[in-house]
Amino acid sequence: MREHLKACMQAVLEGDGERAEELAKLTLERKLPLLEVIDGGFVAGIREVGRLWEEGALFLPELVMGAEAMKMAMGVLQPALEASGGKQEKAGHVVIGTIEGDIHDIGKTLVATMLSANGFGITDLGADVPAAKFVDEAEKRGAGCIAVSALLTTTMPGQKKVIEELRKRSLRGKVRVMVGGAPCSEKWAEDIGADGYAGDAVSAVALAKKFMA
Amino acid sequence: MSLMPRVEWFTGHDRKRIVDEAKTILEKIGVFVENDEAVALLDNAGAKVEKGRVRIYADLVERALDTAPERILLYDRGGEVAMDLGEDRIHFNPGSAALRIFDPSIGDARTPVTADVVRFVTLTDALPAYAAQSTGLIPGDVPEGIADRYRVYLGLLHSSKPIVTGTFRVEAFAPMHAMLSAAAGGDEELRKKPIAIFDCCPSPPLMWSELTCQALIDCARTGIPAELVSMPLTGATSPVTLAGAVTQHCAESLSGIVIHQLARPGSPIIYGGSPACFDMRKGTTPMGAIETMMIDGAYAEIGKYLGVPTHAYMALSDSKPVDYQAGMETAMGAIVAAFSGINNISGPGMLDFESCQSLEKLVLDNEICAMALRLTEGIVFRDDPIALPLIEKGLEKKEFLSLPHTMKWFRREAYFPGEVIERGTLDEWRSKGKQDAATRASARVAEILGSHMPMLPDDGAAARIEEIMTEEARKAGMAGLPRIE
After folding, report:
1. Which CATH superfamily is domain B1-380+417-485 in?
2. Do B99 and A156 touch (CB under 8 A)?
3. Tens digits of per-residue pLDDT, B181-208?
4. Which residues contact A91 (CB under 8 A, 6 or more apart)?
5. pTM for the full predicted model
6. How far apart are the CA of B281 and the nearest CA of chain A, in angstroms?
7. Which residue among B99, B236, B281 places its CB closest to the CB of A153?
8. B354: which chain A residues are within 8 Å (Cβ-Cβ)?
């Protein structure tokens, strides 16, 4: 078991998706305890990736590949986990996307990667996402947080629409909203009544943790 | 004639290879076009359209390149040529569309307001190394929805230099064109003697959004030069290799030229861009990276090979204040751009990944640009024999200062920078209060703004421009335009 956990962790750390998937399948075949393998193997790996990235030892491609490997392993394990009634999203669920009219994807994807590396369940809606869609998805997933990115001054006002939509559905008390993207700021978050602003992936994780605490 | 100092990035074989592969990309992958009018134009011309994805065949590219002009002239408001874009002639203008201005009084960046934009435009008008102005700041005191046209309005009222600009919204083109037309003396005059360039940016990889595609078509129809601003980010929105980025840039730009020339053959279009060597640690787009500059120089060489004028976002920095890094990156970019013979170089004044403008830096960068312009003149042979009789005379007089030959040529041979560049003695520097370059530049900004008188549009044109903008402001829910001191 210890060897297996180490191998799982290593596969994520090396960003080796195929190997991670293989190890996930092996976990099922050998009927190893799922939560233990996920926590002690794959999640431990992605946490290490996140730590090394923050330290500056790993670069973005390594971070993204690590998350990819994690995703591939979870693709195999998730159905079995759900069937057994287990839940792996300890930190909570975040719905994330770039607002309608804006096709800038990269910053948002990094935030999603870092959140997932820190144990958050993530629904990444991609770019050009209408305000209502964020809220639909948050409702469906029971998410505690919506993260909205905007890279253009012209699309920023869309972030406010997400908050209005939450109010309309009386969900404002349940779902926290964080905003990010080059033109945003603390002040902008305050102005539109968001719960917080994150300038980069690391502060986004800190903020999400604060929300979910 | 002197030899213009130049760098080459590719062998002839590799230039062709890049263009050939770009054409293959357009045939095999195609481009994603969100604009119905552009899709219809491409469809009618024989491109293969399937659900917004358009495959463009090489013959269509060839035809577009045949009709695209290789030289574009831009005019100032006096009707004189201000930019002669083509071959290896270089021109500078400030970097465009910054969200913030660096304010030395607080030592930080902040949101600009109308008064900042007016100062920025006036300063650009006064500084001689800038051939054009740009709508370089997005003022925060008008609604976001009309900021694009409001910048043009301020530019037209406070400087006679041509404007490098662009639309943020599809509906902005008409009022922007109307104001430019009022300044130029009519639609036909504007077409004949354009006073603006509009940036049109494809979205990497290989996509034309509704907005930018419409801008491309509107430019073609009205004769306002369009500037393609393809921006591959290595390893993020394009292949990680520099050669891969240049090839993707080529495919995107060729697709833009095709759409543009289909809208109106022969309309002026510039092969430009704003690529970056994506920073794999910070997830940022450093414009001061040497690799970014290499991609710029390299794609410009492809543009020249294709026979269209070129542009790049260079001579700018990612530094936050006006410091060592700011000067270093700006100067490197300006020199690489000059050696690459890029016709329109946008960037001076800029900090922080194209998001901040600085008046002080604009003054300092004016010196960098002036030196780069001098550099491209190369070394000229004024005499034959070159030196021998002069040395004889110098020996006779025991100095060269009093030679008529020295008097005749010294101003032509060297560029003399302004006082912001310190070339005095240590004592002189001490006596002036031990100032650094940014502090000297601050003083110079105040001096210029206190004394410069731009050539303003005549009353009739100014009133018409004012009227158009006031109507736009009213539509956006404003009672009136911000007052300008």
Report:
1. Trimethylamine methyltransferase-like (3.20.20.480)
2. no
3. 999 999 999 999 999 999 999 999 999 9
4. A118, A119, A120, A121, A208, A209, A212
5. 0.89
6. 5
7. B99
8. none
